[in-house]
Design goal:
alpha+beta
Length: 413
């Protein structure tokens, strides 16, 4: 805001309607005598907006990184990812290089590392550049704790941790079923039981956070994916729960684009005690939901809890036997042969620079114990993919996947 223009506007308002006993000429003279002081007061009261880079929480950071020599505990910074926080620890160490037999003098370098306590809750190593904080964020989404508040993690990493805990149950169960010796079968069965308990604790913590922040975008989190895990965590599922679970498993092949008003939907979420589900007309589609008509009442049903009716009988069988038949078509780890073939056909070994993301390397066809794994190497971390799932639930950053797909590589989904 320009203080000169602000002063002129204020003077014009006062001259147009001066206080009692004050003539407009007196106002002009006062302003002429004290204009410099008045402009300085207005400039201090209304400082200009600093130039900088907006952050995702409504804050502002500088454009030039802070030199590491200026790092200090308590210094407010913004990370490369746009997270605000304060440096909590600074470590300086000296490295001395000696070239034996060369006669060259020893070289010394001082390396500086830091940790940062983010406003969202977690503390982490400052891996990239730190930028000066020009304006604090308007609101900060808190991090997620899956262990009762002892440690915190970013929501996207928390969701990946919950998903990995769920997959670990299947991995241990598979090992138990494949074990030849009774003691090993017992060992892996116990591991599966413990993994199931861990998964339920992690999911409960994540759901508590999600109820507080339902609209915050989380990488790789979808309503369908979250509902799948909610159903898997139910200790004693009903027939309706099992019916819904059966539909969510393969829901990725069905999209909202296939639904329209007037369609007839098999609503598995309304399955009765015998496992049967009614067929109801679709009134309209709203977001990820179908609005169906049941005896004159409108019901809202998530699209993955329904399927297109294939007959006019009004009932479709979704009993446990049907679920087992569907599950029998799956291969190990929930990955089909078609998925593996599609992944193998779209993989190319390549190394490239992805701008600010740095170097990305794709390595195809690494043979594992059971599957063929394609790998992405980024910043020292390997992300393995077998055509249907990511190893250990570790998913590379979305920007890395976009760069890979932009080069015509389709092996990673």
């Amino acid at each position: 805001m320009n203080p000169e223009l602000l002063l002129d506007a204020a003077v014009a308002l006062v001259r147009a309607s001066p206080p009692d006993g004050i003539a407009p000429e007196y106002v002009d003279g006062f302003v002429a005598r004290h204009r410099g002081e008045l402009v300085a007061l207005l400039a201090a009261a209304f400082p200009p907006e600093p130039a900088g880079v907006p952050t995702h929480d409504g804050g502002l950071r500088g454009e030039v990184p802070i030199p590491k020599e200026e790092y200090a505990e308590g210094l407010r910074i913004v990370t490369e990812a746009g997270d605000h926080g304060a440096i909590s620890e600074v470590t300086r160490f000296r490295m001395r290089s000696v070239m034996l037999y060369s006669g060259e003098p020893a070289r010394e370098e001082i390396h500086i590392t830091a940790r940062v306590r983010l406003d969202s809750g977690r503390e982490e190593h400052l891996g990239g550049e730190a930028y000066p904080e020009l304006r604090r964020p308007n609101a900060v989404v808190p991090d997620v704790s899956l262990d009762g508040g002892r440690t915190f993690m970013a929501p996207s990493y928390a969701w990946a941790t919950v998903s990995a805990a769920f997959r670990r149950i299947g991995e241990y169960a598979e090992k138990a079923s494949n074990a030849r010796k009774p003691d090993m079968r017992q060992k892996w069965s116990q591991e599966a039981t413990a993994a199931r308990a861990t998964f339920r604790r992690h999911l409960a913590s994540f759901l508590a956070w999600r109820r507080e922040w339902p609209s915050v975008p989380v990488e790789n989190l979808t309503a369908l994916g979250l509902r799948r895990l909610e159903l898997a965590a139910i200790p004693e599922p009903t027939a309706a729960d099992r019916a819904e679970a059966q539909r969510t498993i393969g829901a990725s092949s069905r999209t909202l684009a296939t639904w329209s008003a007037g369609d007839r939907a098999v609503v598995y979420g309304l399955a009765g005690g015998d496992g049967s589900a009614p067929v109801l007309p679709v009134v309209r589609v709203e977001g990820e939901d179908l609005v169906v008509d049941q005896d004159g009442r409108e019901l809202v049903v998530p699209y993955w809890m329904a399927d297109h009716a294939r007959n006019d009988s009004g009932v479709t069988d979704v009993t446990d036997a049907a679920i087992q038949r569907w599950m029998g078509t799956q291969t190990r780890g929930g990955v089909t042969g078609d998925q593996r073939a599609a992944a193998a056909a779209g993989c190319v070994d390549v190394t490239f620079q992805a701008g600010a993301l740095g170097e990305v390397r794709v390595v195809c066809g690494q043979d594992g114990r059971r599957d063929v794994w394609h790998n992405i190497w980024h910043r020292g971390t390997r992300y393995g993919y077998n055509g249907g799932r990511w190893a250990k639930g570790m998913v590379p950053p979305a920007g890395v996947l976009e760069q890979i797909r932009a080069r015509g590589i389709t092996a990673f989904g």
